[in-house]
């Protein structure tokens, strides 16, 4: 008899809960539970450290129907004024979700490199609520309305966070106004181009004449052009040509193949067209954004000068340029290969100085993975290995861990990772914890340390190629909300991929 009772009890509970669900679940919201780890869509988040545009406050944020509908400071808040569920995060930090404006998810066509499902799961686990996918490394590249449509199809029901798309500016479409207009009309948030070979055959490089044409079209849409600013100079190529005589395992040799003068030459050429973006200029409304700056000397000086001359120009750098320096990279460790390369520690210090001083506007991951075979980890050939750092899931703890000694504040993190990226991508409803915005939120604990090793839940497709593996970091993501859906909580993702594709209107 005792046995029987034990068997009945769980069954009865199950029956009762099924009945409860049948009677009390709103049928119109039946799929909601799949999109979120929470069974409700009206709730409050409370914390002593909520990062808002008005500073860090102790408050309660009310979320309803995917948006932030009110923010009540602790002193104004009476218990009975809150209706619905309350999630109390204590003194964990509540920040706007990160917006990564530079990620390569390689889908469709090279999903074995990353792909939307693993990439956006990694993003969610890292507190990233929106990412903007780059137009290259997928196959085909996103340079036309047809290829943008393929992106949208590949993303359908396969993204766990919101995903927008940059289009490609390439020689084939640069002088074709109607082709560029069609791509922008179809929703590309802006365009991206290379001033040096991209490493991908169907994404050729552009020069200043292409860029000038692109800017003129972008101006009418008030959307940005993102530029990979390196121009091949003989100084660097010379080294590459002598490939055979060099030890390709030496990081110092790779470094010599892409000197700072390449970045400087590109930026200097860019500035001849950047003038057009000034108020009253022929491309007023367009904006130039320099991606992944590595050289913190002459290149940065040129950007500062352009800003002071009224050009509409911003610049990003990436966590790997802030975390690592050439001196520490072991010969043969191609996990650290990227372009432009990670330079010496003096340069790293200058990058931090520029970031803290407001001369570098924002951060991005430039998550650029591949399959481990192409990283040539065994051979350690820096000249032949795929260039790209895998980092998507780790950018928040990395920025925080390495930034602490420079005195990085929570407000700065929110500005570099959310507010300014939202502005670049034209997302007025994102990037800040503010009433009316999407409830895109990360809850994280700055003081929890962890080892990034095999025991850590990692969602990028190929953890072994990440330069961060083996690091000890501080700053643990506790929960990530995308438009009010709890999409990630301590090692668990929502069952369904309910992120939205973002198209410019
Ligand atoms: C310009 O692009 C449109 C749309 O993609 C295409 O139909 C047309 O043939 C292109 N024109 C030229 C001159 O390449
Ligand atoms: Zn990139």
What does this protein structure show overall?
With 505 residues, the chain is α/β, with parallel strands linked by helices. It is 31% helix and 21% strand. The chain is built from 15 helices and 19 strands. It has helices at 2-24, 32-35, 116-125, 145-155, 171-174, 177-185, 208-221, 234-241, 251-257, 260-274, 298-308, 319-323, 345-356, 395-403, 410-424, and strands spanning 42-52, 55-64, 67-73, 85-88, 93-96, 98-103, 128-133, 162-165, 167-168, 191-194, 224-228, 287-290, 313-317, 362-363, 441-451, 472-482, 485-489, 492-493, 501-502. Strands 1, 2, 3, 4, 5, 15, 16, 17 and 18 form a 9-stranded mixed beta sheet that branches. Strands 9-10-11-12-13-14 form a 6-stranded parallel beta sheet. Helix 6 (177-185) crosses helix 7 (208-221). The model is unreliable at 1-30 (pLDDT under 50). Zinc ion is lined by residues 102, 104, 134, 366, 368.
Provide the fold topology:
Layout: H1 2-24, H2 32-35, E1 42-52, E2 55-64, E3 67-73, E4 85-88, E5 93-96, E6 98-103, H3 116-125, E7 128-133, H4 145-155, E8 162-165, E9 167-168, H5 171-174, H6 177-185, E10 191-194, H7 208-221, E11 224-228, H8 234-241, H9 251-257, H10 260-274, E12 287-290, H11 298-308, E13 313-317, H12 319-323, H13 345-356, E14 362-363, H14 395-403, H15 410-424, E15 441-451, E16 472-482, E17 485-489, E18 492-493, E19 501-502
Parallel strand pairs: 1-4, 1-5, 6-7, 7-8, 8-19, 9-10, 10-11, 11-12, 12-13, 13-14
Antiparallel strand pairs: 1-2, 2-3, 5-15, 15-16, 16-17, 17-18
Helix pairs in contact: 6-7, 8-9, 10-11
Bound molecules: 2-acetamido-2-deoxy-beta-D-glucopyranose and zinc ion.
